Amino acid sequence: MMKANDRGLSTSGVQIMPSMDGEIPPEGNTAPHEKPGYILCSWVTGFLETPAGPVPRVATAMGPADRRATVRVRCGIGRHNYTVAPGLYAVGRPGSDSDVLVTANFKLTFDHLRKHLSGISAWILVLDTRGINVWCAAGKGTFGTGELVSRIKSAGLEKAVGHKRLILPQLGATGISAREVKRLSGFRVIYGPVRASDLPRFLANGKKAEPAMRQVTFNFRERLVLTPVEVQIALKPALAAALVIFVLSGLGPGIFSLDAAWTRGWDAIGALAAGMVSGAVITPALLPFIPVREFALKGIITGSITAALLLLFVPGTGIAPAVALFLFTLMVSSFMAMNFTGTTPFTSPSGVEKEMKRYLPVQMASLLLSTGLWIYAGF
Question: Among 309, 312, 315, 303, which Cα is nearest to 264's?
Fold first, then answer.
């Protein structure tokens, strides 16, 4: 349920905040299972009465509101507030012996789980991960042992089920101590497959994972679906950089020229855009085929090719401005590609740190050199 003008999470596992699903209906116009001033989220179909109290039943099919919100969040719009309330949920009509699936309260993660549970009756225990997905939350500690044990107690899970087993996503293992969970709560942890899409088969196999279910993939589609967020994150810094570019482009013998700022500025903006496309789109798309390990170096390679193609469309460019545009393009490409390391399974935290220490000075030097050459060319 959601209530207008309230923000926060209720202890019953129901959100109390302005809905992304639609408007709040007027009082007196509610369904029997709703309260005046509240409205069910579009993905909640009702409540299941249990010894632990009423538990929200959620749909497994994604509705129009879910799909629209997914597109927005994939583009980085409102993604930090896209959460469901932590607590206990139900799919189908689970009973005391039904499995308990544990997940994060980032709604994209929650949605990805429930949409693969069609025809299955199970409990979903949602942890408060501050709106972060399972893998990242496990690394940050919010998908952790303490939160899991606390949520088991606050949700009254022992009243709802008659067994002592939990099925956790494999990628949450780094944040959970199965031994401590068992000691503190009595529940046994079973690690499920990497992908939620494998859960039906995993459950049908007696909770045994096939080798392929333990492997992390990062195919073409999985890489490109991350691109909109990477671009959106870079938009504000890019707009600020564009203003600086126009100012620098206008510097010349007459101190400052609006004509030069306009004509030369667009050439530099083109280099900025080319670098962003190279680092955030081309590099991820060709990731396995670029024959180096470091992401920053991959960005330099694709950025160099992109910059060379860009210069073909910038007529009458002298040596200094051409070199400036070339260096600026590959610098932006390298930085965007390096930033992409945090969204891949190809790197470790220590590897990312090592790469940043190696390539940030190179990128800074390229930026300073390209800026100096661009200002020099104006004179």
Answer: 315
80-to-40, 189, 271 alpha-carbon distances in Å? 21, 29, 31
Cα distances (Å, whole numbers) of residue 95 to 4, 98, 99? 33, 5, 9
Separation between Cα atoms, residue 277 and residue 270, nearest integer Å: 11
Q: How many C-beta atoms lie closer than 10 Å to residue 151's C-beta? A: 21
| Beta-bridge partner residues of 255 | 252
The alpha carbon torsion through 297, 300, 306, 312 (nearest 10 deg) reads: -150
Three-state DSSP state, 25: coil
CB-based contacts of 101, cutoff 8 Å, min separation 6: 113, 117, 122, 123, 124, 125, 167, 192, 199
pLDDT computed for residue 354 by the predictor: 87
Distance between CA 250 and CA 245 in Å, rounded?
A: 9
The single residue listed with the structure tokens 């116009």 is 29
Instruction: Kindly report the backbone phi and psi dihedral angles of residue 251, in degrees, each rounded to the nearest multiple of 5, phi listed first.
Output: -70, 135
In whole angstroms, give the CA distance from residue 359 to residue 90: 48
The rounded Cα 45 to chain-centroid distance in angstroms is: 27
First to last CA, the chain: 64
Intervals of the chain under pLDDT 70 = 1-39, 316, 342-349
- Ramachandran class of 219: left when φ > 0, alpha when ψ lies in -120 to 50, beta otherwise: beta
> In this structure, which long-range contacts are made by residues 114-117, counting pairs with CB atoms below 8 Å and at least 24 apart in sequence?
114/43, 114/58, 114/59, 114/60, 115/60, 115/61, 115/62, 115/196, 116/60, 116/196, 116/197, 116/199, 116/200, 117/60, 117/91, 117/92, 117/199, 117/200
Which residue in the block uniquely carries the two structure tokens 């303490």? 146
- pTM equals 0.76
Contact yes or no for 278/318 (Cβ under 8 A): no
- The whole-angstrom separation of Cα 231 and Cα 303 is 16
Q: ∠ CA(40), CA(76), CA(7), 5° rounding?
A: 35
Asked if residues 109 and 138 have their Cβ atoms less than 8 Å apart, the reply is no
Instruction: Provide the edge-to-edge strand list for the sheet that holds 122-127.
Output: 44-50, 53-58, 87-91, 122-127, 100-104, 165-168, 188-191
At 5 the pLDDT is 30
Q: How deeply is 34 buried, as exposed, middle or buried, from its count of CB atoms within 10 A (0-12, 13-18, 19+)?
A: middle
